[in-house]
């Protein structure tokens, strides 16, 4: 299968393309358990990680993935907007182009920024999260984790709980899971649910206690305290009481169900520590799968070869 | 021949359309001095400059109630000179410039500057709109009397709504001294705050903060009620939603003294175009959903929407190359408005020429209370001759505006102004 130059979002992928990412990542998972977990698949390739918004975890995950494939990695973080720098997005693209890197992993605070970069670069672009739009590599590693656990995605019942409005993780998971035939529901206060989300064939619930027992996967999202300051919910206490994955609430979940979280967690807020570390939690598996998935993604887009 | 030498122009064989009298026939027009002398078939005048308008439409000069010339303040974006050049290239013989300049048009000094500069440029009529409140701060009303004396043709804090209902009430009451019109930019800023596109399915998919339709409709409803309450003359700017059209339709039936305008981008596009993240589609109010676009077209058809304005809003390339959330709102429109009217309203929606010319000429003249927008003997000779079928490319190097922030760059457009006559003088000829 000939891949697209860039990975900008899950919305633009079909089920075959998603499956290809999942299958490729599965193969790389084995390498991570080797005594020397490194292969020369991308030797001589240069990958730039360009983070316009701080995210230590994602940047490290990509760096580790690239190094496991023997690529050269350059990490760059700049958390100021181009407005403040006096440089436009197109200037940034032209500068990168002049440096002749093979691929760019970009995290940006503005939705759509990776797309504009990709349109102006010959290097491939991997979206590592843009604004409140998409986080495709996270959704792919999430789907990988679900498939690992259940063996399938079709008709899997997945519930995403929390700040859907501002979540690129939720959007990418919704697009991907719907494409793979899963059933997706969201549960949050109405103030944190984006308008017309039902048009993406997603069920909407406001009362977590009534429905938590119906799902195979419950994914909690990080709640940002600035959302309370913006008046979207009245208090952390009330949020936890209504939507937190508390020890009590999790008892109502299906026997074989799992709990996911894209991290970093606010322990004791959207998820209790005992739940995050408990038997249903696959949070650390997600982190490990993240490296394998990013290896697979870089491998596919850099046109790597296994000798 | 008359004694003194009057320059005369004879426009031959055009389809002459005058919305006021509903005249729509092939005829010749003789212009002498700055007036229309005769409208008849087969006129013969010795020594007159002849314009062959066969196959073309002869319309009153277009009047744009709403553009931004950025002068004074941002000569890198636009000046009165470049804006006037863009206007005549688009068929506009009169343009009203909004007062969100730096400094704003809130005193007669700025009004005098604009009027003098427009006279120096001498291309089209430039009518300044004054601010409703001093410094556009929404607190104290401007000196309407002084501003009108200096030459403003209406009042607006465009770019901002007058958020404080009491201030707007005072402005409306005070405007009655002068029978002046309040041009409101209707958008509840507490609801639209942070929004960069229409709130709906598309904004949800794109992860861009939305500006909901109700942000416009709440203020439209408030302003209609205030207009009814005060009896002031209200003109609602750049109407973009179905709800607004419905509210205004009802208000007009009730007899409220209101007029309104929409812009070509609201009947030409729906919010799916934002999928490109092209910042040239970022406008305020935002391009709305297909349901709203249909309602705007129906509002134009049944007369609820009186005028088509451009909201020509120039921005530099550097500003528009920023991230979508950071780029400023606005697209240029003076040079593309006619083509969009033809391509959408005439060719697709089957409006008559009389209907669309009415909204580009006579209706805006009525809002301004100016004796413009008519083609009749004795009227001021502001005339736009339209070639309705010609296909042309909107190339960046040919754009007259200083800014190029248009989603139509390098696109093929249909129809253009072929000749533009202002006050009896040919000010523009396409391709020359």
From TrEMBL, chain A:
<comment type="subunit">
    <text>Heterododecamer (2C3:3R2) of six catalytic PyrB chains organized as two trimers (C3), and six regulatory PyrI chains organized as three dimers (R2).</text>
</comment>
<feature type="binding site">
    <location>
        <position position="222"/>
    </location>
    <ligand>
        <name>L-aspartate</name>
    </ligand>
</feature>
<feature type="binding site">
    <location>
        <position position="57"/>
    </location>
    <ligand>
        <name>carbamoyl phosphate</name>
    </ligand>
</feature>
<feature type="domain" description="Aspartate/ornithine carbamoyltransferase carbamoyl-P binding">
    <location>
        <begin position="5"/>
        <end position="148"/>
    </location>
</feature>
<dbReference type="InterPro" id="IPR002082">
    <property type="entry name" value="Asp_carbamoyltransf"/>
</dbReference>
<feature type="binding site">
    <location>
        <position position="85"/>
    </location>
    <ligand>
        <name>L-aspartate</name>
    </ligand>
</feature>
<comment type="similarity">
    <text>Belongs to the aspartate/ornithine carbamoyltransferase superfamily. ATCase family.</text>
</comment>
<protein>
    <recommendedName>
        <fullName>Aspartate carbamoyltransferase</fullName>
        <ecNumber>2.1.3.2</ecNumber>
    </recommendedName>
</protein>
<feature type="binding site">
    <location>
        <position position="58"/>
    </location>
    <ligand>
        <name>carbamoyl phosphate</name>
    </ligand>
</feature>
<dbReference type="Pfam" id="PF00185">
    <property type="entry name" value="OTCace"/>
</dbReference>
<dbReference type="GO" id="GO:0044205">
    <property type="term" value="P:'de novo' UMP biosynthetic process"/>
</dbReference>
<dbReference type="InterPro" id="IPR006132">
    <property type="entry name" value="Asp/Orn_carbamoyltranf_P-bd"/>
</dbReference>
<feature type="binding site">
    <location>
        <position position="135"/>
    </location>
    <ligand>
        <name>carbamoyl phosphate</name>
    </ligand>
</feature>
<dbReference type="Pfam" id="PF02729">
    <property type="entry name" value="OTCace_N"/>
</dbReference>
<feature type="binding site">
    <location>
        <position position="168"/>
    </location>
    <ligand>
        <name>L-aspartate</name>
    </ligand>
</feature>
<dbReference type="GO" id="GO:0006520">
    <property type="term" value="P:amino acid metabolic process"/>
</dbReference>
<feature type="binding site">
    <location>
        <position position="264"/>
    </location>
    <ligand>
        <name>carbamoyl phosphate</name>
    </ligand>
</feature>
<keyword id="KW-0665">Pyrimidine biosynthesis</keyword>
<feature type="binding site">
    <location>
        <position position="107"/>
    </location>
    <ligand>
        <name>carbamoyl phosphate</name>
    </ligand>
</feature>
<dbReference type="InterPro" id="IPR006131">
    <property type="entry name" value="Asp_carbamoyltransf_Asp/Orn-bd"/>
</dbReference>
<dbReference type="InterPro" id="IPR036901">
    <property type="entry name" value="Asp/Orn_carbamoylTrfase_sf"/>
</dbReference>
<feature type="domain" description="Aspartate/ornithine carbamoyltransferase Asp/Orn-binding">
    <location>
        <begin position="154"/>
        <end position="299"/>
    </location>
</feature>
TrEMBL record, chain B:
<dbReference type="GO" id="GO:0044205">
    <property type="term" value="P:'de novo' UMP biosynthetic process"/>
</dbReference>
<dbReference type="InterPro" id="IPR050138">
    <property type="entry name" value="DHOase/Allantoinase_Hydrolase"/>
</dbReference>
<feature type="binding site">
    <location>
        <position position="158"/>
    </location>
    <ligand>
        <name>Zn(2+) 1</name>
    </ligand>
</feature>
<dbReference type="InterPro" id="IPR024403">
    <property type="entry name" value="DHOase_cat"/>
</dbReference>
<keyword id="KW-0665">Pyrimidine biosynthesis</keyword>
<feature type="domain" description="Dihydroorotase catalytic">
    <location>
        <begin position="56"/>
        <end position="242"/>
    </location>
</feature>
<dbReference type="GO" id="GO:0006145">
    <property type="term" value="P:purine nucleobase catabolic process"/>
</dbReference>
<comment type="pathway">
    <text>Pyrimidine metabolism; UMP biosynthesis via de novo pathway; (S)-dihydroorotate from bicarbonate: step 3/3.</text>
</comment>
<dbReference type="GO" id="GO:0004151">
    <property type="term" value="F:dihydroorotase activity"/>
</dbReference>
<feature type="binding site">
    <location>
        <position position="100"/>
    </location>
    <ligand>
        <name>substrate</name>
    </ligand>
</feature>
<feature type="binding site">
    <location>
        <position position="284"/>
    </location>
    <ligand>
        <name>substrate</name>
    </ligand>
</feature>
<dbReference type="InterPro" id="IPR032466">
    <property type="entry name" value="Metal_Hydrolase"/>
</dbReference>
<dbReference type="GO" id="GO:0008270">
    <property type="term" value="F:zinc ion binding"/>
</dbReference>
<feature type="binding site">
    <location>
        <position position="311"/>
    </location>
    <ligand>
        <name>Zn(2+) 1</name>
    </ligand>
</feature>
<feature type="binding site">
    <location>
        <position position="68"/>
    </location>
    <ligand>
        <name>Zn(2+) 1</name>
    </ligand>
</feature>
<feature type="active site">
    <location>
        <position position="311"/>
    </location>
</feature>
<feature type="binding site">
    <location>
        <position position="238"/>
    </location>
    <ligand>
        <name>Zn(2+) 2</name>
    </ligand>
</feature>
<feature type="binding site">
    <location>
        <begin position="329"/>
        <end position="330"/>
    </location>
    <ligand>
        <name>substrate</name>
    </ligand>
</feature>
<dbReference type="Pfam" id="PF12890">
    <property type="entry name" value="DHOase"/>
</dbReference>
<keyword id="KW-0479">Metal-binding</keyword>
<comment type="similarity">
    <text>Belongs to the metallo-dependent hydrolases superfamily. DHOase family. Class I DHOase subfamily.</text>
</comment>
<protein>
    <recommendedName>
        <fullName>Dihydroorotase</fullName>
        <ecNumber>3.5.2.3</ecNumber>
    </recommendedName>
</protein>
